[in-house]
Design brief:
It is a single chain. The chain has helices at about 10-15, 20. It is built from 2 helices and no strands.
Length: about 25
């Protein structure tokens, strides 16, 4: 679920690894 919502505050580590690639 964390991978599906990288913008979620719960996935701080994943959000930092995904957004840069998605954006």
């Amino acid at each position: 679920m964390m991978l599906v919502s990288p913008e979620t505050p719960m996935s701080g580590s994943l959000a930092v690894s995904i957004p840069p690639s998605a954006r």
